[in-house]
Amino acid sequence: MPFRRAVSVVAAAALSIWTAFVPVSRPAAAEAASPQGASAVVFAYDRFGEDQNPSISIRIDQFEAHLDELTDGDYTVLPLPKILDALRTGKPLPDRTVAITIDEASRSAFTEAWPRLKAANLPFTLFVATDAVDRGSPAHMTWGEIRQLAAAGVTIGALGTSTQSMLARSPDQLAADLRRMSDRFQAELGRRPAVLAYPQGEYSLAVRQMVIDQGFTAAFGQQSGVLHPQADPWSLPRFVMNETYGSADRFELAANALPLPVSDLTPDDPLVAVNPPPLGFTIADGVGDSSKLACFATGQGRTALERIAEDRVEVRIRDPFPPGRARVNCTLPAADGRWRWLGVQFLIPE
Fold first, then answer.
1. All domains of the chain, ordered by start, with CATH?
2. How many CB atoms are located within 10 Å of the residue 289 CB?
């Protein structure tokens, strides 16, 4: 369906800030092929109908509204590996291509999300944290249930050994955890995982390199944004959906988003050494009128922008961020009431 809800630049960027707890993507095909080139929106869910955990859970009525939008609207929901292959090989993707991902392998994902996704015939990817499954946690799936999903065609990816941030572990411990997690996949599923989601969406350049060294072909954060061929395969964005930020309006806005490709993004490491971080990037050609770009920083609202050259933008973040996660989200209006999105998450040390 046509995108119904046109919003102002300020509203769009504010909705992008809603993507909670999020790092970022850095450094005759089909009659409905994307007019903007190959791109895809990836949604990230965790738990379902767990009202006691609203920051990581979506209400069932919200989730059903999302599925209704995807099945009734003009979207193409594809398995994540097919999207990644298209981006890697230059194959076209239909306009409004979408992927669904679920983190953690919770019990509610199996009992609430899986039956609804199966009934809607929508593919999805499950990112598994292995330690909770190995412990037999009643809040999580069993390996037998994960094998059942895999046999039904669900893509099984890795979240690591736990939902703890990878930045909380030493390099040696993280390397050992990644190997142990991969070994558990091999033992229980007969193969090692190829795609990973960073727990809590947090990573640094050092963590990213370790993930590459362990053989993963792609890795996802939780920053808002849209997949496109120039995106870093190990820093890919997703739109996070939870109870607070799972409205139908926000879902439709994100599902219709277009990429905002940039290069030479600085600082290149999400784990910042200078606060406020000196954020800058070069906007790709052909994305529209960059003078309409608007960026918003966590807790500071709309930021000042300085154009160093015609396509080079530096974001002037006014104040230092407090320790923890901080975000800058940038949007640019596109045709038909749609928006280009770029999200950057910074991790501020104590």
1. 40-259 (3.20.20.370), 261-349 (2.60.40.1220)
2. 9
Encoded tokens for 121: 């015939």
Tokens 């947090």, located at residue: 202
- In the chain, the amino acid numbered 293 is L
List alpha helices for the chain, DSSP H.
9-17, 60-72, 80-89, 107-108, 114-120, 130-134, 143-151, 171-189, 205-213, 248-255
| Omega prior to 320 cis, within 30 of 0 | no
Tell me the pLDDT tens digit for each residue of 225-260. 999 999 999 999 999 999 999 999 999 999 999 999
User: How many other CB atoms are found less than 10 A from the CB of residue 84?
Assistant: 21
Instruction: Indicate the angle between helix axes 205-213 and 171-189, nearest 10 degrees.
Output: 40
Over the stretch 71-80, which tens digit does the pLDDT of each residue have? 999 999 999 9
CA quadruple 68, 228, 15, 196: dihedral positive or negative?
positive
- What are residue 259's phi and psi, to 5 degrees? -75, 150
